[in-house]
Write a structure and sequence with these properties.
- This protein is 22% helix and 26% strand.
- It is an alpha/beta fold.
- The strands form 3 sheets. The protein has a 7-stranded mixed beta sheet, with no helix packed on it. A 6-stranded mixed beta sheet has the order 1-2-3-13-14-15, covered by helices on one side.
- Helix 4 links the parallel strand 2 and strand 3.
- Helix 3 packs across helix 4.
- The relative contact order is 0.14.
């Protein structure tokens, strides 16, 4: 690993950036592979710009596209002779609100609103939830984030199929927007059959890590909403660990094993 000289380090404190310091940084850069970042040339430019870790979004695309992107990154990394990690981000459970009679409502901060698990159309003051276990999981004081966190509710009480909330952060809410329950121990399965199939495919492909976006456990990842699970490819035994303790980390000078040398996952 290159070592930045004293003059270079001093220059960087003044706002001048150097490739040497980029290699020594502790913060890692993650890039998602997709239509806008496909191709070996694009991967090579991203690596040159400082990307350490590439993400395969298993919620979108198909296996052929993911396999092609994986090979392109490995080719670019080998050409650049730098250690680059690749992780498969499993879709996990996706919680959503239902539909509204007028396709949306406006939430006003400080007002009350009811979330219901009944199969009804939403209306002003009533938000249908497609997550049927909402009434079992939330408690008074639990936060409920909607539309990628743009909107926030606070649970006041739970009665039968209804969850009474106060609007903390208001704004427009439309059909089938996402819902997140930060800090809530959810009772729904963290992995669907589709996620398990995606995990087996990714392990056979040779990814370095698996990621699962979930609120199913009380452990919080240093990366925020991402909690990471490593799955041993030899026996598919699941074991959680914090991000900094991963066995290989881009930039430490150790290259990951090639996909051909990694054991396959045969345990269902």
């Amino acid at each position: 690993m290159s070592v930045t000289s004293a003059p270079a380090a001093t220059a960087n404190r003044g706002g001048v950036w150097s490739p040497a310091l980029l290699k020594r940084r502790r913060t890692k850069i993650v890039a998602t592979l997709g239509p806008a970042s496909s191709g070996a040339e694009t991967a090579a430019r991203l690596i040159e710009a400082g990307v350490n870790l590439f993400r395969l979004n298993m919620a979108h695309g198909d296996h052929d596209a993911h396999a092609a992107a994986f090979r392109q990154v490995r080719t670019a990394a080998n050409s650049a002779q730098v250690p680059i990690g690749i992780f498969a981000d499993l879709a996990g459970p996706k919680l959503r609100v239902g539909q509204f009679g007028a396709h949306g409502i406006d939430l006003v901060a400080g007002t009350s609103v009811v979330m219901t698990t009944r199969p009804v159309l939403g209306e002003p003051g009533l938000i249908p939830s497609q997550y049927g276990r909402l009434i079992d999981d939330v408690r008074p004081g639990s936060p409920v984030l909607l539309d990628d966190g743009l909107l926030e509710l606070r649970v006041e009480r739970v009665e039968g199929t209804e969850v009474w909330c106060t609007v903390v952060q208001g704004g427009p809410l439309t059909d089938r927007k996402g819902m997140n329950l930060p800090g809530t121990e959810m009772s729904a399965p963290a992995l669907s059959d589709k996620d398990r199939d995606a995990a087996r495919f990714a392990l056979d492909l040779g990814v370095d890590y698996l990621a699962l976006r979930t609120s199913m456990t009380s452990w919080t990842s240093p990366m925020g909403s991402w909690s990471l699970e490593a799955i041993s490819a030899s026996n598919c035994h699941r074991r959680r660990f914090p991000w900094p303790s991963m066995s290989w980390w881009p930039g430490r000078g150790r290259k990951p094993s090639p996909a051909s040398s990694q054991p396959k996952c045969s345990t269902p």
